[in-house]
Design a protein that fits this description.
single chain; Arc Repressor Mutant, subunit A; 2 domains; three-stranded antiparallel β-sheet; 6 helices
C-alpha cells in the first residue's frame, strides 16, 4: 500500500512544518509511525534515500526528543528503531511534567531574584530587565492553571 504510506508521510510533513520540524524529520517519523515493529536503521536509508550518517544523526535527535526508541537484537550489530504509538512523545512528560517543573522552578527562584535586584535597579535599562523577569514570572505562573486543566482532560480521556 505504497499510496497509503506516501499520503501519510505527506501528512506528517505538513504536521512537522506546523510545529517547526524539517521534512526529513517528519518523513522519518511518518515511516516509523506506520511500522508495527522495530525496523533496521538501513531500512530508513532505503526508504528515504538519505545517507546512513544523516539518518543516524536524525534518529539520535529523535531519540533525545522522546519520539523513538533504538535497540539491538541479541548477537546482532544492527540498530533497530521503533516509534511507540500510544504517545508521541510521552504527552504527560511534554505537556504536564516539564511545564510544571519549569513553573515550580520559576516560583521558587524568580521572586528572590526580583526582590533582591528590584530595589537596586536605578537605570532605565535595569528597570526594564526587572520588568522582563517579572513578566516571565507572571506568564509562567498563569500557565499553571492551564497545565492542571490539561492534566484533568488527559486523565478523563485516559491519555498517557
Amino acid at each position: 500500500m505504497k499510496g497509503l504510506e506516501e499520503e501519510f508521510i505527506d501528512f506528517m510533513e505538513h504536521v512537522g512544518n506546523i510545529v517547526g520540524y524539517d521534512n526529513s524529520f517528519s518523513e522519518i517519523m511518518g515511516i516509523l509511525y506506520l511500522e508495527p515493529e522495530a525496523i533496521p536503521l538501513e531500512n530508513l536509508v532505503d526508504k528515504t534515500g538519505y545517507c546512513l550518517s544523516s539518518i543516524s544523526q536524525k534518529i539520535s535527535m529523535l531519540e533525545l526528543m522522546g519520539f523513538i526508541k533504538k535497540s539491538r537484537k541479541p548477537d546482532c550489530k544492527k540498530v533497530y528503531v521503533f516509534m511507540p504509538k500510544k504517545s508521541i512523545p510521552d504527552i504527560r512528560k511534554r505537556w504536564i511534567e516539564k511545564p510544571l517543573a519549569k513553573i515550580n522552578l520559576t516560583k521558587k527562584i524568580l521572586p528572590s531574584i526580583i526582590k533582591k535586584y528590584k530595589p537596586l535597579a536605578k537605570t532605565e535599562k535595569d528597570i526594564k530587565k526587572i520588568r522582563i523577569i517579572e513578566d516571565m514570572y507572571d506568564r509562567n505562573t498563569k500557565c499553571e492553571k492551564m497545565v492542571y486543566e490539561l492534566q484533568k482532560i488527559l486523565d478523563k480521556e485516559g491519555i498517557e
